[in-house]
Design brief:
Elements (H helix, E strand, L loop, with lengths): L14 H4 L2 H27 L13 E9 L4 E6 L2 E6 L9 E8 L2 E6 L2 H7 L1
Parallel strand pairs: 3-5
Antiparallel strand pairs: 1-2, 1-4, 2-3, 4-5
Amino acid sequence: MCHLWLLIPLAGIPLFWLLPLGYALPINILLWIVSGLLGYKVIRAMMLSPKDGFKSLIGSEAMVVSMMNQSYGQYMVKAGHELWTAHSTESLRPGEKVEVTATDGIKLVVARINTENWRENK
C-alpha cells in the first residue's frame, strides 16, 4: 500500500492523448511534483519509531492510584491517560508521582521520583 503513490504520474499519461501538449505537460509535471512530495512524506513516516503506547511510556511520569498487593509491591498507576498494573521495589502511596523505568511483560516497573530533581532534568 505504501507504494501506491508511485502510480500517480501514470494518471497523467492519458492526458497526452486527450489534451493538447500545452495543457497535458503542466498537469503531468504537477502530478510528478505531488507524487514526489507524497513519497517524501511516506518515507519520513516509515522511518519514525513506532508508538505503541506501551514501550513509549518508559521515562514518563505516572501517578500511583491504588495499592494492589503491598507484600509484592504491586500498584495500579495512571500513565498516559490509562491505568496500568505496575510494580516497584519501594513502598509507594496513592497519589504519589513515580517514573516509569521499564516494562516487565505487560506490567510497568516504576520508581519514586524526587519532583524537584525530575523537573530540572526534563
